[in-house]
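Q: What does the assembled structure look like for these inputs?
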Amino acid sequence: MTEFLAFPFFHRALAAGTVAAVLCGALSFFVVLRRLAFAGSGVAHAAFGGVALATLFGLPPGLGALVAGLLVAGAAARASDASGISEDAAIGVATVAAMAAGVVALGFVRTNVDLFGLMFGNILTVAPVDLALLVAAAVPVLAALALFFRPLLLASVDEDGARTAGVNVGAMRLLVLVLISVTVVVALKVVGILLVSALLVLPGATARTLFNRWPGLLFGSIAAALAMVLGGLLLSVVLDIAPGAAIILLGVALFSAASIGSRRRD
Amino acid sequence: MSIGVRFDGVTVSLGGRRVLDAASFTVPPGLRTALVGPNGGGKTTLVRMLLEVLAPEAGGVAFVDGAGREVARPRIGYLSQRSTLSARAPVTGLDLVGLSLDPRPGFGGRSAAERDAREALERAGLAPELWDRPVGKLSAGQRQRVLLARALAGRPPLLVLDEPDTALDAEGLRTLRRVMAEELEAGTTILFVSHDTDSMGGADVVFRVDGGVTEEPAESGP
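A:
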């Protein structure tokens, strides 16, 4: 096993996993606080349709994923402002529409699309260019989160109070959804649709059971994401199992242990 | 400078029902003004327009100085009847009041906001040992004091209180009446919605809101 640790591809996997974990862990704080788990999952699944449609039209797959993700984010943000359609219904409709369009598009695609890789990713095959793209996206996303942290936090815990204090609540909701979309797209190549959904929900949910103040929740979420990704990677090597599945299963185990521990503490 | 509020021909419909029909009146600067009237008469709708949470179909709201000249929207201290503050919010009273005082994006310390937040929590009567406790771990009455502190924080020139007598416990209400007296002394304009102006210590001006708005004789309390 130890010789495995010396290979450059494993170093890239560790680096990509670390960046994706910090990014997703920080966003997971807001995903859990704003109950956006379904939105995160919806954006990730819509990206599948975007990739398929972009491939059909000879466009970069990442562009298709980004457009599909932003469409779902826009639909979710608009539904909350407009009357009559709830946010989860809008996300549900946009997500299944994007996925169905993707399946239809795949029927016409002559090139080979790695569906398994798209769904589950393979962090061990991260190329240097993928890692560079991930870092290039992580910097502005984390900077935006840090810059807008105060209005985002206030709007996430008390919408009317934030509005009265002069915060543009609709813009904050859209900002979170756009940041989720960008994160999903850049992390997709590295960790796959299912894993990126899990990374947006499990770290924040785990930290929520352990901490009841925002600093603990935020940094606990990032720590849980790092433990999931790095621990899962090592487990996948030790047990010779798929890294994506190992990361998710470790995340579920951490969440379960934290939930049980928190219940016993109460 | 004391700030007044001018409602001019305000018309609002909600769910197909006309709640306010061309309502025009002025909340005078530096006084206690009460909005009274039946449930569904449009009192909270007027407050929501004032806070820019709701836009009228016709007419508008303007802020005026003592001479009746229009001025920019001031900072408004608001205590709501029902708060949207999540009971599980991972923030302390000090966090919440500080964030509400200065929610601008940016980096760096916010020592002025924190200082004002501490002062407001003290004025609202929340014991200092509770300032750093998450709001979810506070009793309902203590949480109301945090919300009262948020309304008072930074000494805004206009205080809007939506049925504070239902939102606060008896001790909280006593604190509110004391603070209202201090604020009036300092020239703050107070607009409150209530079914019982006596419980608020009376009002200088009373408007009955029931689809339209009419002025009623005021009975100042102690």
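Residues 169-210 of chain A form the longest helix (42 residues).
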